[in-house]
């Protein structure tokens, strides 16, 4: 498994890197059979240290955790605890409700755009109704079952996930509703 351990405008010592590899490695080995890579980023926010970790699994799913603490080791330990909880839930769901995936999730590329909000400070009408593109990026759309898509959305803590439905071979959307339930859009 590959580890990428870095700090944003802070130095990360060799002892902390070793601690991250051993502790995170134990958590991942306990719940994930074939992890591919892990990224851990440390930063400072005011008087607190922030630890953000992302683990990519061979099934195509991604687990993310973030924690704030006044000490850098405590921030990592809290983050590692959250990662442990997410991977434990993920494994339980796979075992109880979903088929065991024998091959990795197929990923498709798509363009992603960030558009200007269009809200202007004055009360004038805009010259054109065409949105202004602020940024253009490449995004990945996984090919998943509906259950796996819901699990991926919950693991990522995202409000929405677009995926290619394995059974119907079309684009679908799952999203968190205001009432706390999950919505699923399946175009005909």
UniProtKB/TrEMBL annotation:
InterPro entries for the chain: HPF/YfiA_ribosome-assoc, HPF_long/plastid, RHF-like, RHF/RaiA, Ribosom_S30AE_C, Ribosom_S30AE_C_sf
Domain spans labelled Sigma 54 modulation/S30EA ribosomal protein C-terminal: 130-183
UniProt keyword Cell membrane, yes or no: no
SUPFAM superfamilies linked: Ribosome binding protein Y (YfiA homologue) (SSF69754)
Subcellular location: Cytoplasm
Record keyword Repressor present: no
GO CC annotations on file: cytosolic small ribosomal subunit
Assigned keywords, A-Z: Cytoplasm, Translation regulation
GO MF, any single term: ribosomal small subunit binding
Signal sequence region: none
GO terms, biological process: negative regulation of translational elongation
Main location: cytoplasm
PANTHER family the record matches: 30S RIBOSOMAL PROTEIN (PTHR33231)
Record note on quaternary structure: Associates exclusively with 100S ribosomes, which are dimers of 70S ribosomes.
Family: Belongs to the HPF/YfiA ribosome-associated protein family. Long HPF subfamily.
Role description: Required for dimerization of active 70S ribosomes into 100S ribosomes in stationary phase; 100S ribosomes are translationally inactive and sometimes present during exponential growth.
Protein name listed in UniProt: Ribosome hibernation promoting factor
Organism: Sulfitobacter sabulilitoris
